[in-house]
């Protein structure tokens, strides 16, 4: 109601228009009553002409009222939908820095996609319900004046409808809530599969994830069928009650008419009124389902809207918003005082105190889980301290304006987000008004300018969502440039160069030394090159400061620091990864070729679906046809009762007609019960079929599709479009069919009863056909466009949900909300244009119908006077025309739903036609245990649509059991090489052989199951730690999972988590640090018991020793291992080192051989090993940790 109150003008317009329409509908039967009674009594023709003029006036008022009611109602619905959607978008961003128990950004986005449609559907029906209410009230007053006895029949009908509706509401609400919950679960599952596409494909788990989605769809199907079962108990009763009321009216009215206490005109008025109740009652029966679903959705939506974030907490605490600055304009100092913080019940920081002087550079180091990243997040208020204080410039951060704080404190997080926009827009993300020179200066400082200028359109190159075509190092440098462009006075770098090579890192660090001047800097460091930038190093362990000092001081006295940064003595050769030598954790896999995923390119269309389900659909059609025929019985029985009973004063004929009608109603009620259940069962089976096809194709698509297409657009095609079709099949298709059959049945009945009078109506049909053709030509393009606009809205929503924290850190809440509001407004305006056509077309159909009724009444009265037409036939004709009006009203409500479903079907068909880039052959070579011989023969690769080759003729042989490290500059093609070996991409030239077989000859999923892949940015599905590790192997035991964790040094970390292996992992692993996620990914690959291990910067965020323990070779002869790394210390321990440079193999040999060659690798080694001591930036002394 509050939302409606914002639009009082539209509400008043819709209310007044609905009231006028209701009053006009009330007046028309009264005028018809007078005309018939006057004709039977032979009264003056002047009054008759006035009555006809009055009827024309009511038709005009009804037409105008219907047009304005529809326009106002739809505009009101669209505006409220727009406001709710934009408020939910703001809530998505607000839920980024959330308290425990509040929805995550992705959960909030799910509710925007899944729960808004039923709410807006109900809002669109609101003014029509109001008009029906006015109609019912007006009819009640008129009936009470005409006949109190017959009014009692109508009152009893009303009470019966109210009682059944209330009972239905109480029983159906829990089922509707469960449906909404299942819809949200399905959307969330699809979203996670899209986000985790690489890990799914890397481990060959497509079939399992498809089954997971299908199982979620089955749960939704079960909930829908449960709701349909409950609906079948009430909807047929609600539809039968008006007909029972008409039969009661026929019996009592016939008795009164036989005893000359009721005129035929009065009976017609009453019958018309009850006939007009059919449309409101059908809507009420639909409202029982839609209303409860909307209520359940509204509860879930307002749970998100009412959940406060940290920014709300600032306001509610009454704190004063203050800017971040110092009196002299210099950088502020940073102080943590006795800070305590726990996440999910796990203490992260314990009495943590640290003072960073203004202009000082401090490095924080420590093992995984020490709390380093948490310090950074507390500083920018992505979390709030639970005890103690965080001060910037001497002020508690909770007293500062949060956007000013984040503008002054620039955090480069360990997770780098690239948005679907130009490079320029990504760099200037926190300063949309930055000049081109400022953008280029930030890129140069981050050493990103060179690779950006090499892109096809340079700084104007549009990057795909998540920056899939960029290397990890390139994404990191863009993230660093983004923060530098914001020109913060405090700079916090959370391992900001972990994915770049040592030589480039040295260049970046040289540039950063200049950028640090005049800034307070906190470095979260895991590499020697980073700690060299610091004036002082602070060691954290278990959430406390253990020591502080220079590199030499800490090496001499701090055991934690020595374990992290003591010099290595790597000489290379003969080593293996920990995954190479361990015994298998699961039984050896036999030669296998999994059943291929069913064909994903099968065409989707209505005709094909109809053929597949022709049996159940034929049964549904027969039941619907029976229902439509039964609906024609009352007018025919009325004609029989009047002509055979009332005219001859024979109540027996009236009673016989009534009893016969009662039998029809009871039979029709049973037919409707069966029909509702059968239609729901058939519709849900059909929807499961459609969803299965979509999920099948979703899993078959290559990784290039996910890197190219926006996740939100894909999510919309796989969830929103099927939901629109499901909504039409569940609530609209049957109503449309009944309405269409009723129109045909009424037309046939009119011709049978009196062909001459029926021909009076026929001239209206060419007009309606012409109007329909014009209407369809105009409306279909608008619906197609609106679906595209909605896809853009959902894509932007999904992108911001995935990067909510990056949005907050850049202070982009208002900018992005404005952009989202613009996208939503474009969708709203497009829908409004379509609704204006709907608001004109369907009232026009009603106008033609009403005018036809006036013509029939005039013609019928003339023929009655001439003695060629009986009163019963005329009354039956008028009642049949009322039946014509009811289907038109139903069609007006459902046509829009049909158009959206049709466009959705077309878009789903287009999605199923998307080419699959990596396919299994028709007769794949069986995949058993692989020896691990890998040969790359003149391998070339370029991304689709680009001419630049990422790999330009790579020839390389890796023997079975060998460990090869692949190194090179960022963007040299290292990650691409690993993806090609895993067949995540398909080579564009040359070939890759594994055990002498072209990898394209293997079944793609069976082949990938023999690989263990660890990407730079690991992804995890929501579940427990045990689930996260066990993803890689079917039926892994608890002991097997524990051994995998122990093998990579993760067991101690897990033991510290609440619940241990049962500890909850959020979608994407966002509640774990990147270093923990990487160790978790190593354990997952370890559990897969692979024959070939592919590590793509698998420990870039881990502290030095942890990284070596997780990825460095250490003995054994069985597994072939390919390690992509920027750490020479890791590469040095491999059997061979391959140096890639601009897509070709520049060097190949052992560590010692490459050092002796004094080429690219030797230069990288020297850069990494140059003076392990710390070179202070400015020679300033550091203050000690408190």
TrEMBL record:
UniProt keyword Hydrolase, yes or no: no
UniProt cross-references to Pfam families, sorted A to Z: ABC_membrane, ABC_tran
Matching SUPFAM superfamilies: ABC transporter transmembrane region, P-loop containing nucleoside triphosphate hydrolases
The entry's keywords: ATP-binding, Cell membrane, Coiled coil, Membrane, Nucleotide-binding, Signal, Transmembrane, Transmembrane helix, Transport
Region of interest (Disordered), ranges: 572-594
Coiled coil: 206-233
Primary site of residence: membrane
GO molecular function terms noted in the UniProt entry: ABC-type transporter activity; ATP binding; ATP hydrolysis activity; ATPase-coupled lipid transmembrane transporter activity
CDD domains: ABC_6TM_Rv0194_D2_like
Membrane-related topology note: Multi-pass membrane protein
Pro residues composition-biased segments: 585-594
GO cellular component: plasma membrane
All residue ranges annotated as the ABC transmembrane type-1 domain in the record: 12-293, 618-900
Organism superkingdom: Bacteria
Chain segments annotated as transmembrane: 50-68, 116-135, 141-164, 617-639, 651-671, 724-751, 757-775, 838-858, 864-885
ABC transporter domain sequence ranges: 334-567, 934-1167
Subcellular location: Cell membrane
InterPro entries membership: AAA+_ATPase, ABC1_TM_dom, ABC1_TM_sf, ABC_transporter-like_ATP-bd, ABC_transporter-like_CS, P-loop_NTPase, Type_1_exporter
Signal peptide: 1-27
PANTHER family: ATP-BINDING CASSETTE SUB-FAMILY B, ATP-BINDING CASSETTE SUB-FAMILY B MEMBER 6
Similarity remark: Belongs to the ABC transporter superfamily. Lipid exporter (TC 3.A.1.106) family.
The protein, known as: ABC transporter ATP-binding protein
Organism (species): Streptomyces longwoodensis
């Amino acid at each position: 109601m509050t939302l409606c109150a914002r639009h009082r003008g539209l509400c008043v317009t819709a209310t007044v228009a609905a009231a006028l329409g209701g009053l006009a509908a009330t007046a028309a039967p009264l005028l018809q009553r007078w005309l018939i009674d006057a004709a039977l009594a032979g009264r003056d023709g002047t009054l008759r002409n006035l009555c006809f003029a009055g009827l024309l006036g009511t038709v005009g008022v009804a037409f105008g009222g219907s047009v304005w009611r529809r326009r106002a109602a739809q505009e009101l619905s669209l505006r409220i939908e727009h406001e709710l959607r934009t408020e939910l978008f703001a809530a998505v961003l607000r839920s980024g820095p959330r308290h425990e128990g509040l929805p995550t950004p992705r959960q909030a986005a799910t509710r925007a996609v899944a729960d808004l449609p039923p709410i807006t559907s109900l809002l669109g029906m609101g003014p029509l319900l109001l008009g029906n209410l006015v109609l019912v009230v007006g009819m009640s007053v008129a009936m009470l004046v005409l006949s109190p006895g017959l009014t009692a029949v109508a009152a009893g009908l009303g009470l019966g409808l109210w009682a059944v509706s209330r009972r239905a509401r109480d029983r159906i609400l829990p089922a509707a809530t469960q449906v909404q919950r299942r819809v949200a679960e399905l959307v969330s599952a699809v979203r996670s599969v899209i986000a985790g596409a690489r890990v799914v494909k890397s481990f060959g788990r497509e079939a399992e994830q498809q089954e997971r989605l299908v199982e979620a769809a089955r749960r939704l199907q079960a909930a829908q069928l449960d709701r349909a079962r409950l609906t079948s108990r009430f909807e047929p009763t609600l539809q039968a009650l008006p007909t029972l009321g008409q039969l009661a009216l026929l019996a009592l009215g016939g008795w009164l008419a036989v005893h000359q206490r009721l005129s035929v005109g009065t009976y017609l008025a009453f019958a018309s009124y009850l006939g007009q109740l059919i449309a409101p009652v059908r809507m009420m029966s639909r409202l029982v389902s839609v209303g409860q679903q909307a209520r359940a959705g509204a509860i879930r939506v307002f749970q998100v809207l009412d959940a406060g974030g940290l920014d709300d907490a600032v306001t509610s605490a009454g704190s004063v918003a203050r800017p971040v600055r110092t009196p002299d304009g210099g950088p502020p100092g940073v102080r943590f005082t006795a800070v305590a913080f726990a996440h999910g019940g796990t203490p992260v920081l314990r009495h943590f105190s640290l003072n960073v002087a203004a202009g000082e550079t401090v490095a924080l180091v420590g093992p995984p889980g020490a709390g380093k990243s948490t310090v950074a997040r507390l500083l920018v208020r992505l979390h709030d301290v639970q005890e103690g204080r965080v001060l910037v410039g001497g002020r508690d951060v909770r007293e500062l304006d949060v956007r000013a704080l984040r503008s002054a404190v620039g955090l480069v997080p360990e997770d780098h987000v690239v948005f679907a926009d130009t490079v320029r827009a990504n760099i200037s993300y926190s300063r949309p008004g930055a000049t081109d020179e400022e953008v280029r200066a930030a890129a140069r400082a981050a050493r990103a300018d060179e690779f950006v200028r090499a892109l096809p359109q340079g700084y104007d190159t549009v990057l795909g969502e998540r920056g899939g075509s960029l290397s990890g190092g390139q994404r990191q440098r863009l993230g660093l440039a983004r923060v530098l462009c914001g020109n913060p006075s405090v700079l916090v770098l959370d391992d900001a160069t972990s994915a770049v090579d040592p030589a480039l890192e040295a260049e970046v660090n040289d540039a950063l030394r200049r950028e640090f001047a005049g800034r307070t800097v906190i470095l979260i460091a895991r590499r020697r090159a980073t700690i060299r930038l610091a004036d002082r190093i602070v060691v954290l362990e278990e959430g406390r400061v253990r020591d502080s000092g220079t590199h030499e001081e800490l090496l001499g006295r701090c055991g934690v620091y020595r374990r992290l940064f003591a010099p290595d003595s790597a000489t290379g050769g003969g080593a293996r990864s920990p995954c190479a030598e361990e015994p298998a954790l699961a039984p050896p896999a036999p030669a296998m070729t999994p059943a291929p995923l069913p064909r994903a390119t099968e065409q989707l269309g209505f005709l094909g679906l109809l053929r597949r389900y022709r049996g159940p659909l034929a049964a549904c059609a027969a039941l619907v046809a029976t229902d439509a025929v039964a609906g024609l019985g009352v007018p025919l029985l009325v004609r029989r009762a009047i002509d055979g009973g009332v005219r001859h004063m024979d109540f027996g004929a009236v009673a016989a007609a009534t009893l016969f009608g009662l039998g029809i109603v009871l039979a029709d009620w049973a037919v409707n019960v069966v029909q509702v259940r059968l239609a729901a069962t058939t519709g849900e089976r059909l929807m499961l079929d459609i969803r299965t096809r979509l999920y099948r194709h979703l899993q078959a698509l290559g990784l290039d599709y996910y890197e190219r297409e926006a996740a939100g657009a894909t999510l919309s095609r796989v969830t929103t479009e099927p939901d629109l079709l499901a909504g039409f099949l569940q609530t609209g298709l049957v109503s449309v069919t009944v309405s269409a059959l009723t129109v045909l049945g009424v037309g046939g009945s009119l011709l049978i009863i009196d062909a001459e009078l029926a021909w009076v109506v026929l001239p209206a049909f060419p007009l309606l056909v012409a109007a329909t053709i014009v209407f369809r030509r105009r409306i279909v393009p608008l619906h197609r466009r609106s679906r595209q606009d909605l896809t853009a809205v959902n894509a932007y929503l999904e992108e911001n949900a995935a990067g909510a924290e990056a949005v907050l850190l850049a202070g982009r809440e208002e900018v992005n909300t404005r952009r989202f509001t613009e996208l939503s407004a474009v969708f709203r305006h497009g829908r409004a244009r379509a609704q204006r056509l709907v608001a004109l077309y369907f009232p026009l159909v009603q106008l033609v119908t009403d005018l036809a009724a006036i013509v029939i009444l005039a013609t019928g009265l003339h023929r009655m006077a001439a003695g060629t037409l009986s009163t019963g036939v005329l009354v039956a004709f008028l009642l049949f025309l009322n039946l014509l009006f009811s289907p038109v009203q139903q069609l007006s409500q459902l046509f829009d739903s049909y158009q959206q479903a049709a466009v959705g079907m077309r878009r789903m068909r287009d999605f199923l036609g998307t080419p699959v880039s990596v396919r299994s052959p028709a007769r794949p070579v069986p995949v058993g245990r692989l020896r691990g011989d890998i040969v790359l023969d003149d391998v070339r690769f370029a991304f689709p649509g680009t001419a630049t080759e990422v790999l330009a003729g790579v020839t390389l042989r890796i023997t079975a059991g060998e460990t090869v490290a692949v190194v090179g500059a960022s963007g040299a093609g290292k990650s691409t090489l690993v993806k090609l070996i895993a067949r995540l991409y398909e080579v564009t030239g040359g070939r890759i052989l594994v055990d002498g077989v072209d990898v394209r000859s293997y079944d793609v999923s069976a082949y990938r199951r023999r690989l263990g892949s660890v990407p730079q940015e690991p992804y995890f599905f929501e579940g427990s730690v045990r689930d996260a590790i066990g993803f890689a192997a079917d039926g892994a035991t608890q002991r097997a999972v524990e051994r995998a964790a122990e093998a990579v040094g993760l067991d101690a970390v897990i033991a510290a988590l609440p619940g241990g292996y049962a500890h909850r992992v959020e979608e994407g692993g966002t509640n774990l640090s990147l270093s923990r996620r990487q160790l978790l990914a190593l354990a997952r690959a370890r559990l897969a018991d692979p024959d070939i291990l592919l590590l793509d910067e698998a420990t870039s965020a881990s502290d030095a020793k942890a990284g070596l323990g997780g990825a460095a070779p250490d003995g054994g002869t069985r597994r072939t291992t390919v390690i992509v790394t920027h750490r020479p210390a890791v590469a040095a321990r491999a059997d061979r080192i391959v140096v890639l440079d601009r897509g070709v193999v520049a060097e190949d040999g052992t560590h010692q051989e490459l050092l002796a060659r004094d080429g690219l690798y030797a230069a990288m080694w020297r850069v990494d090993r140059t003076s392990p001591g710390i070179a202070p930036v400015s020679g300033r002394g550091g203050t000690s940790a408190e």
